[in-house]
Amino acid sequence: MLVFAAAFTLALPVGFGVAKRFPNTGETALIMFAYLGMVLAGGIKMIRARRRHGG
Prior knowledge:
By secondary structure, the protein is mostly helical. The chain has two helices and no strands. The radius of gyration is 14 Å and the shape is elongated.
């Protein structure tokens, strides 16, 4: 989970910079889907860990 947090923290300013520099709708949507995928992957990982540990 720490790796996901670090990757998100590092990618956030880069993603916003790209989105501001290239205001193409397709690129902005791609960045949003990438962030959404990372957040969903982290959430699924957390749910699986909770089930494994009986939380």
